Amino acid sequence: MKRQMGKKSRLAWLVGTAAVLLYGGTASASELSICVDKSSPTATVDRSIAQAIATQEGSTLSLHEFDGSGGNDDDGFSLKEFDKLAKASCSLVLGFPLDADAKAALPGLLATTPYGHTGFVLVTPKASKVTALDQLAKNTDVAVTYQTTPNLYFVTHPNVNADIHLTDDASLSALEKHQVHAAMLWQPTVVAYLASRHESARFTYHELDEPHAKFNLVALYDEAHAPAARDFEKAVAALTDSGELAKLLAPYAEIGAATPSQRGKSAMLKRSSVHGGIDRRCGSKKAAKPDGPAPALFTSAQADSGKIKFLTYCAMCHGPTLLGRSGPALRGPNFASPKADFHVSDVFGIVANNMPATVPGTLAHDDYVEIMAFLLQQNGYPAGDKALTFDDATKSKVKLLYRGGPIDNQ
Predict the structure, then answer these.
(1) Each residue of 298-307: pLDDT tens digit?
(2) Are both 14 and 108 inside the same structural domain?
(3) Are residue 96 and residue 168 in the same domain, yes or no?
(4) Most buried among 35, 247, 321, 388, by the most CB within 10 A?
């Protein structure tokens, strides 16, 4: 596996913790208050759609911009900081990418009907006829950005090798310099990169038909702003009928809602069915409890040692309490939810191949195993008499479900 250095990807913020922002507050009947993430590659599109919605409603637009990347602070936003931002004066948060497979987000939030869809794409040179991962030749190097969903796909596509970069620009640059044969990236990021370099004819890209690769674009709101959400949906319907919405979204996204992946061979992440669009609930305040007792997969000594190694190698990105910083949370009902349907091997594969951020895959096998034991412990799994091994963790089909713990009291 090749390893490249660089700054942390903004995309990890977009499809991880940054996407859960919600602003509360109130607005007058003649004013539409919308929040837009200025660090998102779709920021320009979001601003245009916000203005079009306001015009359609006959309202004055009050636009509030935030930096979902965390600005110059590598630690980014924590969930507690998001709670503070939720008290700001904004009725709707535009441009939220909701996973068409998992549909998971911050508990308690509501989402409008999807007005567009986008997602991760396979990027290849213009002359290439490849449109899917399984069409690539054996041992093909494919660039991906650290902590993004496509890192999962190397497990079920052994014909390709991971070439991991810490920024989307670095991943695309590797393709541009012919260091790799393809890349898997967020479509809006690819569009923005090509537009900034006036190189739209150099690459081509196709939707990845893989689990958790497709996202629906929605506006987030809380219950107090349900009237604003209903007005938003009416305006979206009118813009759709007129053809204006499709023009505003292109080429960053397509109109309408994405459906879950139809691929059946991935054993990593099971699809969630969607009937009549998406569930408006982005989560519930109480996560569903898993059935049956949790299996003992590790020893107490492994978890204790894993805590020290987690604080040494992982806490900078994921926080000392595993609740997330620039990297996503690694414990709690949103991390290990029934809808996500993670297995121990899924998460361990990411841990062992993509971490630490600066030198992915370089720790000893025992280090990764002990860090995994600590993650399991923090998600409510009990210690036992049998030690977890690297091979066991790599192959384990035990479901990783949050089973309660210290997070419940925070």
Answers:
(1) 999 999 999 9
(2) yes
(3) no
(4) 35
Q: Is the pTM of this model over 0.90?
A: no
Query: Tens of pLDDT along 59-85?
Result: 999 998 888 775 544 444 444 454 454
- Name the amino acid, one letter, at 4: Q
Q: In percent, how much of the chain has pLDDT > 90?
A: 42
The number of CA neighbours under 13 Å toward the Cβ of 18 is 26
Instruction: Return d(Cα 3, Cα 143) in angstroms, integer.
Output: 10
CA distance 370 to 311: 12
Question: 227, 255, 283 — which closes off a domain?
Answer: 255
CA distance 143 to 140: 10
Contacts of 14 (CB under 8 A, 6+ apart): 37, 40, 41, 68, 97, 186
User: Which of 105, 44, 58, 139 has the alpha carbon at shortest distance from 335?
Assistant: 105
Could you identify the residue written with the tokens 């412990």? 377
Burial class (CB within 10 angstroms; exposed 0-12, middle 13-18, buried 19+) of 272:
buried
Asked if residue 263 is part of any domain, the answer here is no
* Domain final residue pick, 144, 174, 207: 207
Separation CA 375–CA 409 (nearest Å)? 18
Please tell me whether residues 306 and 398 are part of one structural domain. Answer: yes
* DSSP element (H, E) containing 65: strand 60-66
Q: 112 and 18 in one domain?
A: yes
Domain that holds residue 193: 118-207
